[in-house]
Amino acid sequence: MSRKKLIAANWKMYKTPSEAKAFVDAFLPTVAGYTRDEIALFPSPVLLPTVIEAAKGSSVAVGAQNIYFAEEGAFTGETSILQLKAVGGTHTLIGHSERRQYFGETDEIVNKKLHTALKHGIVPVVCIGEVLAEREAGQTEQVLKTQVTGAFAGITPEAAAPIVIAYEPVWAIGTGKTATPEMAVDAHRIVRAEVAKLLGSDVASKIRILYGGSVKPDNATALCSQEEIDGALVGGASLKPDSFLAIVKY
Ligand code: PEP
């Protein structure tokens, strides 16, 4: 089963609007006509209109790093999916480990956000992954199964097609430590098997599972060329156009 890979940039809480525009203006010509893989940028909410406008007419998708599960209401500081859609965003990260770690996001919240994204036709990139203590305690498999089961509660096979999963071992995010391709492939197989158990083998064979965690130009080929790895979610190395381009063109 061949799945189109997705190479995605998570800019975290970096860049001003002018820096974001400068990135897109420099990056787009370098990927013009590039069709091997999909490319997506995930800037902070305040940057979304600038980045979407700058990327208009290109094949580079733009999404949010986070959305709230309610469509609108008195939820100060949150970003609504209706707002994301209104400015032309097409994707959203859900349950990034920094959201789980610093903002208390649970599998239950991730699940509610996933339902909201699917209801509104926004491509969800659901982030999962174990922390170091869990890996060292031999709990990686159980943690991944629990996160997948929690995230996918109430999702039907018919609704699941747009979902992308990002396996991001938390100990590899922003640390410079990367999972070896073997470790990533093992984890992806566990995740795919769990999706098969929950939603059937057809959904599981089509769902894309990205790897994230200190992906850099010098390790992108080893990771992304694995059949089981359907692309990358890139943080730090996505902030400069040259570095992100080198990963995109691994
Ligand atoms: C991320 O933010 O999802 C990420 C993987 O960050 P980094 O590439 O910096 O480890």
How does this model look, in words?
With 250 residues, the protein is α/β, with parallel strands linked by helices. It has one domain (6-248): Aldolase class I (TIM Barrel, Alpha-Beta Barrel), CATH 3.20.20.70. 43% of the residues lie in helices and 15% in strands. It has eleven helices and eight strands. Strands 1-2-3-4-5-6-7-8 form an eight-stranded parallel beta barrel, surrounded by six helices. Helix 5 crosses helix 7, helix 7 (140-151) packs across helix 8 (181-199) and helix 10 (217-224) runs parallel beside helix 11. It is globular, with a radius of gyration of 17 Å. The two termini are 21 Å apart. The mean pLDDT is 97. Residues 10, 12, 168, 173-174, 212-215, 233-237 line the site of phosphoenolpyruvate.
What's the structural blueprint in terms of helices and strands?
Elements: E1 6-10, H1 17-31, E2 38-42, H2 48-55, E3 60-64, H3 81-86, E4 91-94, H4 97-103, H5 107-119, E5 123-128, H6 132-136, H7 140-151, E6 164-167, H8 181-199, H9 201-206, E7 208-212, H10 217-224, E8 231-234, H11 241-248
Parallel strand pairs: 1-2, 1-8, 2-3, 3-4, 4-5, 5-6, 6-7, 7-8
Helix pairs in contact: 1-2, 5-7, 7-8, 10-11
Bound molecules: phosphoenolpyruvate.
- Number of DSSP strand runs: 8
- Give the CATH architecture: Alpha-Beta Barrel
The DSSP helix count reads: 11
Bound molecules: phosphoenolpyruvate
The best one-word shape is: globular
* Strands side by side in the biggest sheet: 1-2-3-4-5-6-7-8
SSE order, one letter for each helix or strand? EHEHEHEHHEHHEHHEHEH
Strand residue percentage: 15-25%
Structural class: alpha/beta
The first-to-last residue Cα distance is 21 Å
Low-confidence stretches: none
* Biggest β-sheet description: 8 strands, parallel, barrel
User: Cα-atom Rg, whole angstroms?
Assistant: 17 Å
Class, according to the CATH hierarchy? Alpha Beta
Task: Report mean pLDDT, rounded to a whole number.
Answer: 97
CATH topology: TIM Barrel
Return the domain count: 1
Percentage of residues assigned to helices: 40-55%
* Annotated CATH homologous superfamily: Aldolase class I
